[in-house]
């Protein structure tokens, strides 16, 4: 057994087939994930469970672990709890009918809107055309269907914004600007693009980067992007670009030299301990701090770093010798105009020292400094972007086993399926049941591997945790047999679809009153992809 093959696999993801695809995060590839834990280890996605307690009235998809991961979701939660501005945005490629997998994302957008967020839903028509080769007339039709379902499920278009990429001029200007900070080598390494990749596909990538930052165009604010984990490369790239666009970089420093991020806690610890070693604790010297740090018991100081990091920090302190060790905030001018640099200096309160490319400020805290840098940037033609956050949901298993795919009708339930069709599809779904009723009573069913149980957990039981738990417990306890269980699920699905279709009809009028062009003829031929 190797390290990456643990003895016991815990699967609550509805039993993606054993040995399915390796984990690869490819936005345009196959979207199965065989081992969600690898996403934490290899890609640095954080576990949602760790922030669940901080979420005010969490959505059932969060409570049930369907939303399993996140990147930097805390700033959004803080804003939510403090009544500050925040936003939610996600996008849909109109390549086919919206189905129950997309409903997860619709629900996530709507929930954040209900928690007070500025909400955005967009149609990725440029991506559908350039990366998937979908002709414009089909795109128009599908776009309408996505928007109708989003509204029918509760999106409030008066409060939020819906747009299609190709029609949004501000978006395209932002995309162009962001493209100035990205280059082809990155496209190659992030997305595997090569000399054959059509240029419009690349344009659709900068467009998506712009989508992700679009909610911050008027005002920087924490923004969450709910998506499947296949979109994580986009999220990481957008976070990077957000930072590259910034005028200033704000860091904490202790003397004239620069510290690496890993060294900073060490020097901070040395500063905290100054009473122990400094001849004059009001003015500890870097050299004195170096001596202390060289033999300090770091475990006791609560800092965990490699020895090489300690060595380099000691060396920097030694070199600074008699220079006082004194905490400060350092503002680097990354790409600020002279005017913005001057304005920043002007606005810093208290003691400050100015250098060629940076400013040291002695009387401001980090948060205050961040805010100031953002404000000055915004007043001088910059955006002041906050790196966007994301949350990730599990992919639903197809009703026929394997992955749920838009191109295999029996594998999913379309939000446009007739109620009776939905009923039938559930009735013929595969289950996690045993071969015989007798065996089922004895061993219990395998709810964790059952697409029908997933339907209950992801959709049918909605907010009713008790019902979800009842189905699960009865199944694994052998009290529930698949025939009746599917009949119940199928009936609920039929009711859901009936209700959804009614609401879609009501949404028609709402959609038509919005200023979204879903009809204009666009000329062209499907892109080479
Ligand atoms: N690329 C996404 C998809 O394949 C669609 C998309 C476009 C998107 N822009 C976005 C998703 C912005 C989230 C945020 O479905
Ligand atoms: Fe799935 Fe229901 Fe059968 Fe359990 S009883 S395996 S949940 S269909």
List keywords for this structure.
single chain, Tryptophan-tRNA-ligase_arc, cytoplasm, seven-stranded mixed beta sheet, Rossmann fold, nucleotide-binding, binds tryptophan, Tyrosyl-Transfer RNA Synthetase, 23 helices, alpha/beta, 529 residues, globular, binds iron/sulfur cluster
**Assembly of the depicted chains:** single chain
Bound molecule types:
tryptophan, iron/sulfur cluster
Strand tally, please? 11
Rounded to the nearest angstrom, the radius of gyration is 27 Å
General form? globular
Within the largest sheet, what's the order of strands? 1-2-11-6-3-4-5
The fraction of residues in strands falls at 5-15%
Q: In DSSP terms, counting alpha (H) and pi (I) runs of 4 or more, how many helices?
A: 23
Structural class: alpha/beta
> CATH H-level name of the largest domain... which superfamily?
HUPs
Question: What is the helix fraction of residues, given as a range?
Answer: 40-55%
Profile the largest sheet.
7 strands, mixed
User: Which regions contain 5 or more consecutive residues with pLDDT less than 50?
Assistant: 1-21
- Give the termini distance in whole angstroms: 41 Å
The number of distinct structural domains comes to: 3
The third-level CATH topology of the largest domain is Rossmann fold
**What integer is the average pLDDT?**
92
Descriptive notes:
This protein has 529 residues and is an alpha/beta fold. It has three domains: 85-245, Rossmann fold, CATH 3.40.50.620; 249-380, no CATH class; 419-513, Orthogonal Bundle (Tyrosyl-Transfer RNA Synthetase), CATH 1.10.240.10. Helix content is 47%, strand content 10%. The strands form two sheets. It has a seven-stranded mixed sheet with strand order 1-2-11-6-3-4-5, sandwiched between helices. A four-stranded antiparallel sheet has the order 7-8-10-9, with helices on one face. Helix 5 (100-114) links the parallel strand 3 (87-92) and strand 4. The protein is globular and about 80 Å long. The two termini are 41 Å apart. The model is unreliable at 1-21 (pLDDT under 50). Bound molecules: tryptophan and iron/sulfur cluster. The site of iron/sulfur cluster (SF4) has 15 residues, from helix 21, helix 22 and helix 23. The site of iron/sulfur cluster has 15 residues, from helix 21, helix 22 and helix 23.
């Amino acid at each position: 057994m190797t390290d990456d093959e643990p003895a016991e696999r815990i699967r609550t993801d509805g039993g993606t087939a054993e040995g399915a695809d390796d984990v690869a995060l490819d936005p345009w590839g196959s979207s199965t994930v065989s081992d969600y834990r690898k996403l934490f280890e290899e890609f640095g996605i954080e576990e949602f469970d760790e922030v669940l307690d901080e979420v005010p009235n969490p959505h059932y998809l969060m409570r049930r672990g369907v939303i399993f991961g996140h990147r930097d979701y805390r700033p959004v939660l803080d804003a939510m709890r403090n009544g500050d501005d925040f936003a939610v945005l996600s996008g849909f490629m109109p390549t086919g009918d919206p189905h129950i997998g997309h409903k997860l994302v619709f629900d996530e957008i709507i929930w954040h809107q209900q928690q007070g967020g500025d909400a955005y839903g967009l149609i990725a028509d440029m991506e559908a055309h350039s990366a998937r080769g979908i002709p414009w007339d089909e795109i128009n039709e599908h776009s309408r269907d996505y928007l109708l379902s989003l509204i029918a499920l509760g999106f409030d278009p008066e409060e939020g914004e819906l747009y299609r990429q190709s029609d949004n001029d501000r978006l395209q200007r932002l995309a162009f600007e962001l493209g100035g900070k990205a280059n082809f080598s990155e496209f190659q390494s992030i997305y595997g693009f090569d000399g054959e990749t059509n240029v419009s596909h690349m344009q659709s990538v900068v467009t998506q980067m712009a989508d992700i930052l679009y909610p911050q165009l008027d005002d920087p604010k924490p923004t969450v992007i709910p998506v499947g984990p296949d979109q994580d490369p986009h999220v990481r790239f957008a976070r990077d670009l957000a930072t590259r666009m910034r005028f200033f970089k704000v860091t904490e420093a202790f003397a004239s030299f620069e510290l690496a991020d890993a060294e900073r806690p060490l020097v901070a610890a040395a500063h905290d301990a100054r009473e122990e070693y400094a001849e004059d604790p009001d003015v500890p010297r870097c050299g004195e701090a170096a001596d202390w740090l060289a033999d300090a018991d770091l475990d006791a100081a609560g800092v965990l770093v490699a020895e090489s990091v300690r060595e380099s920090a000691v060396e920097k302190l030694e070199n600074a010798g008699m220079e006082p060790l004194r905490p400060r905030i350092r503002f680097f001018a990354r790409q600020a105009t002279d005017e913005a640099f001057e304005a920043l200096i002007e606005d810093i309160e208290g003691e400050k020292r100015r250098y060629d490319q940076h400013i040291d400020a002695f009387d401001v805290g980090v948060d205050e400094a961040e805010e100031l840098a953002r404000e000055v940037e915004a007043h001088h033609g910059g955006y002041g972007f906050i790196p966007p956050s994301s949350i990730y949901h599990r992919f639903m298993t197809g009703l026929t086993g394997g992955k749920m795919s838009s191109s295999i009708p029996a594998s999913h339930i379309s939000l446009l399926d007739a109620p009776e069709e939905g009923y039938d599809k559930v009735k013929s779904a595969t289950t996690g049941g045993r071969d015989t009723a007798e065996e089922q009573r004895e061993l219990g069913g395998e709810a964790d591997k059952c697409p029908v149980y997933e339907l209950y957990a992801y959709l049918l039981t909605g907010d009713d945790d008790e019902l979800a738990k009842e189905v699960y417990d009865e199944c694994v306890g052998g009290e529930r047999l698949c025939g009746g269980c599917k009949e119940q699920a199928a009936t609920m699905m039929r009711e859901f679809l009936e209700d959804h279709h009614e609401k879609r009809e009501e949404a028609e009028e709402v959609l038509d009153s919005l200023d979204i062009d879903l009809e204009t003829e666009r000329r062209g031929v499907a892109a080479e992809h």
